[in-house]
Amino acid sequence: MQPRRNGPGRDDVDPLEDEEWARVLDHTGSGVMFALTEKKLLLVRLRERPGVANQNLGARVYFGTDLGKREIVAEPLGMTRFRDLPNRAQTDIAEVISQIITDLPEAYLSFYNRAGNLSLKMHAFELLQGVGPRKAREMVEARGRKGWTDLSSLDKACGINSAELLSERMAEELSDNKLEPRLVELLLRQEG
User: What is the pTM of this model?
Assistant: First the structure.
């Protein structure tokens, strides 16, 4: 990995370096699309290739270094902030995250299999909307020692929609960078 300077005296790695695929959040034919990367859920702007048809919400597009695979994207323009997304993209971001979780469940399933207490009074499951202490205990009991191998068995055992619950939390974290703890950081953006 090649370090990149980001301001005085800082050596940082480009956060998009390992990213190749993104899901479209907004593409209105203006030459630029807003998207969410699949691995780390980073918000990006991508320049479309000339003559490309508008991409639907959640469409998977390649923007990696293999130029031969870039059918839709001419080049990545860089990262963007939640507040700079068009209103529709802000509204629909949880739906796109849910698609990513469903299609690529490994990192997200690990949350449900490994989540523990955050404090003496709060379990990590309680970060999810509608999950209180009682439901969190039920989920831990249902998980047992082995955990779940797929999202559908988790959903059935716990009576939840795991992808939807996690996507809502992650969408909230992307819209509010002061929200703590941040599951997006804990699950997807840890530097190892």
Answer: 0.88
The CA-based diameter of the chain, rounded to the nearest angstrom, is 57
Q: Where are the alpha helices (DSSP H) in 30-83?
A: none
82-95 pLDDT per residue, tens: 999 999 999 999 99
Q: Helix, strand or coil for residue 58?
A: coil
**Can you tell me the distance from the alpha carbon of 91 to that of 163, in angstroms, rounded to the nearest whole number?**
17
Cα-flanking dihedrals φ and ψ of residue 12, to 5°?
-125, 155
- The residue among 187, 168, 9 whose CA lies nearest residue 96 is 168
Q: Using CA atoms, how far apart are residues 56 and 181, in angstroms rounded to an integer?
A: 32
Q: Taking CA 114 as the corner, what is the angle to CA 14 and CA 97, rounded to the nearest 5 degrees?
A: 50
